[in-house]
């Protein structure tokens, strides 16, 4: 297979690492993801990754927890670094060279995020994992993914989910829902298709950065997506 995209940003949710567990991470899922990612690295694709932290900590209602929003968001950023370290270990075990960069300085475990350094790592075929979101509260990891993808001049954002694309309705609740093969940014806004939060989505739309939503849990899907096959939904 010949890759259609030279440089991609893969956006994963923290919950995806849980597998069938209720909390934390499943080693089998990390191993499977490492195999999938290696398959596209071997094709010559430059890979950057942003992962959420919802499997460890998700910002909750301040009234319920007593934790103010900004404080809770920083806790969530630290959770993304833990996930990034776990994924880094899995990727290196599979034989890849990696770098973990954090938007919050923690020199003992991760490089500080420096755009030019990140691009240079990608040019040297290292997988770069971006942790700690944007380093600012009130922004999601979806926004971090969009921002980093634009900064590193990625060709596309690949949003790995547990469904095989964007549907007219929730396919887990509505049996009549149909999958879009392609959909425009404007259609997503008009039909209130919640692919990402509005800040993240607007960043992609304003910078003409395409998004592909696909099922990350189906073996071989990631390689098929980067090769341009009809997998998932293309938003452009």
Q: What is the mean pLDDT?
A: 93
Got a strand count?
9
Structural class: alpha/beta
Major sheet attributes: 9 strands, mixed
Report how far apart the termini are.
23 Å
User: What is the helical fraction, as a range of percent?
Assistant: 25-40%
Give the quaternary arrangement of the chains. single chain
Any idea what the radius of gyration is? 17 Å
Question: Would you identify the regions where 5 or more consecutive residues have pLDDT less than 50?
Answer: none
The largest sheet has its strands arranged as 4-3-5-2-1-6-8-9-7
- The run of helices and strands is EHEHHEEHEHEEHHEHE
> Rough shape?
globular
What is the tally of helical segments? 8
% residues in beta strands: 15-25%
How would you briefly describe this protein structure?
With about 240 residues, the chain is α/β, with parallel strands linked by helices. About 35% of the residues lie in helices and about 15% in strands.
